[in-house]
C-alpha cells in the first residue's frame, strides 16, 4: 500500500471498531484508541485519564494474546516486544508506536560490543573512557577472539605487577625477579609502541607480540611458580641485560611502581579496573536478567565454559570492574531510563530520576563464583538467602539517596550532578551514536531504554549494557514510585511535547531532559 492508502486503511479500521463497540460501550466518533501489550498499568491509567479509550483486545503480555493482536484500529500502541508491533501490516505513518527497527544493535550484548568499537572512527569518541574492554567470542572468523586473547594476557601482566606491589613481601618478590623482569619488558615494549602515536590498542598488540616466542605467552598466561624459570631461554638474555641493574631484591618494587605509573597514564581509566585477579565476566548473548553469567580469572576456564555450552550460544566477554564502589558492603549498579524520539535527526531524552540495585550478599573480591555478591539483577538477588536480611530495603535506592550518600561521603553537595551525571550522559550519547546508522528511523515513534552503569572507587562511571523494554514492575517501593512517574511522563513527552520537538522550558519536557539533538 502507498502511504495514503495506509492512512485510509487505518482510519477505516478505527471507524469499524468504534461502530462495533456501540452496544457494549458507546464511543465517540473521534475517539482516540490505544493498545497496550504488556504490564504497563500506570501508562494505561494515564491514557484513560487523558480521555483515550483502550482497544478491547489489549492484554497484559501473555505470548498467545499478543500474537493474536493484528488490528490496525489504534492511534497509539505500546508493547513489550518489538515483534508485536511489526506484526501489524500496513501501519499508517500517523500511528504512534514504541519501537524502532534495528535497535538490537544497541540492546544486545553482541550488537553493543561491535558497534561501540566504531565510535572512535565515526565520531572521535574514546570508548575506553566509559566502556570496559568487551569482545564477541562467537566471532571466530574475525579478530575478536584473537584480540581478547592478547588483551587478557596483557591484563594478566598488569595484574601480576599490581600483585607484586600490593600483596607480595620483599622476600617473596626476590624469589621471582625473572618474572618481574619479563613483565616489565612486556609492558615497556607496549609503551614504546604507544609513544609512536600511530597504532590503535589492537595494533600495538599485533606489532608487539609478533616477534615474541610462544613460550613467553604461555609463561605470562600463568605467572605462578618460583624464580629461575627463564634463565635458560635465549630470549631472556636481552630481558636480563635490560633490567639486571634495576630489578634487584632492593629495587624490584620501585621498578614495578614506576612501570605502573606509566601504565596508568597510557591506559587511562581502564587501568583502574584491572585488579590483581584479572577477572572477566562472561555473558551469553541471548539471555537477560543475569541468566548464565559467570566470572573467570583463568583463560582456560573461559574456554571450558564456552566449549561445554550449547553450540549456537553467542558469548560476549567483558573486563570485570575489580574496583567497584561499595556501599554498606554491597556492590550496586545504576538503572537509568532514556527515551529516543527520533534517529534522524537524533534526539535523546534523559529521565531525571534513576535507581540503584544492590547485590543481596556482601562483596568479597576473593569469591568470584558467588553470583549473589556480583550480580544486582533483582531476579537473581531475590534467590539469595540473604535477600531479606539486607539493611537496604528491597536492595534498592532512589537516585536521590545515592546523591545524598555521595555528598556526605565526599563532602561535596554537587558531586553527583557534577561528577556522576555527566559521565552517565556521555555513555548514553556515545552508545546511541554507535547504533545510529543501523536503526531504521520512523516518524511518530519513540523507544525507551534501560541503561545499566557501574561506578568504581575513583567515581568513574562505566556502561555495562543497554536493555530494551526495561522492566516496569512495582518490585519495590522505589520502583513503584519511579515507574508511575516515568509512565505518566511518557505521554507528556510524545503527545504534549510532540515527540520532543517542543519544550516546557530549557530543553525540558516534564522530567525528560534533551541531552542530544541534531
UniProtKB/TrEMBL annotation:
One of its GO terms (molecular function) is ATP binding. InterPro entries: TTL/TTLL_fam, TTLL_monoglycylase. Keywords: ATP-binding, Cytoplasm, Ligase, Nucleotide-binding. The keyword Cytoplasm applies. Its main location: cytoplasm. PANTHER family: TUBULIN MONOGLYCYLASE TTLL3. This is Tubulin glycylase 3A. It comes from Halteria grandinella.
